[in-house]
Amino acid sequence: MRLRKEEITRKLLHLFALLMPIGIFYIPRWSLPSFLPAGILAFLLVGSIIVESLRFRVPAIQKVFFTLFGSMLREEESAKTTGSTYVVGAALLCAVLFHKTPHISFMVLTLFILGDAVAALVGISMGRIKIGKKSLEGSAACFLLCMALFYGVFPFVPGLLEPWGNRIPAVMAIVISFTITIFELIPLKITPRFVINDNLAVPVIAGYTMLGLSKLLGL
Description:
The structure is a single chain. This protein is mainly α. Helices cover 66% and strands 4% of the residues. The protein has one domain. It has ten helices and four strands; from the N terminus they run αααααααββααββα. The strands form two sheets. The protein has a two-stranded antiparallel ribbon with strand order 1-2. A two-stranded antiparallel sheet has the order 3-4. Helix 1 runs antiparallel to helix 7.
């Protein structure tokens, strides 16, 4: 399948989402209030929900919204909440649930944001082996990118690995990369009609997996 320019632009915008894990990790280190990241994310989430709600109810707002973002929306997002709102929600949940371990929030959000983007780009452009609506090639790209981030990026992020003694156990990198890949691939169906959005769920699942594994490994 040909990769559309709009899909590339959509995924490039994911790079801006990296400001969320950066803020969660570094704002407390800048001697600012530790609750500030969660407060900012809560403000952004409320604003996003209001805009999403109004675009479904007010034709004028819907027109402006589609003029600005319509080309980047997926078909299902025309009548449903966009993935970006769920990503903000996931960042807020991570900021609250892992407030004592902001390095975990940084890593799982960064892994998911970039892994999801690469999985989509590779899956759409080169995916041949389909698994539901996604592809094996996209999932492989997600896994490899996560591993690359663990060993090619995270060790060079100032202060990130201090809680782990400035090391990344191989089992941690493999298990978390696999967790993000699998849950990004498989729909989280609670009932046939109720599916938890992966943008919201995967970072939280990966975060708890990383937290549990950290304790198990004595990190």
